[in-house]
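Spend some time on this chain, tokens included, and walk me through the fold:

. . .
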Amino acid sequence: MTLTQQRLKDVMHYDPETGLFTWRVTLSNRAKAGTTVGSDDGRGYIVIRLDKRRYYAHRLAFLYMTGEWPPHLVDHEDLNPSNNRWKNIRPATFRQNMCNQSLRSDNSLKLKGVYEQQAGKFIATIHLGGRKKKHLGTFADPQMAHDAYIKAANDTFGEFARAA
């Protein structure tokens, strides 16, 4: 049986301002009316068990608010997987979700889309999905390379672009 918005609303309340779910009814001694629902999955995402199935809270929030399951993924705009406030989550394709990522921890320049060439030049690239990558130019200054990346990211990814 596929979970419906009505079933979800019958047993839980979602507060779009806090992003939290609470039980409306008592289902067991662990699921008591008024208590907060969900637990951390170890990666920061909140998971909720209902009717012997496990759901991500951000996907349930989308169902609760729209009446439909998200067509693809649900993106956390601020990159915090436990922040399920309605204003922080949005439907996204896989590509859009991948665009909204923070700077890689192994990026020694601390500038997204930029790496240093051996000759002291800085190369700007942007990933377009899969293994596709576009060369944006070679620059004498790392900030200029990063500015080229930011412009390309905004042009390519729009609201999903992330500069850092």
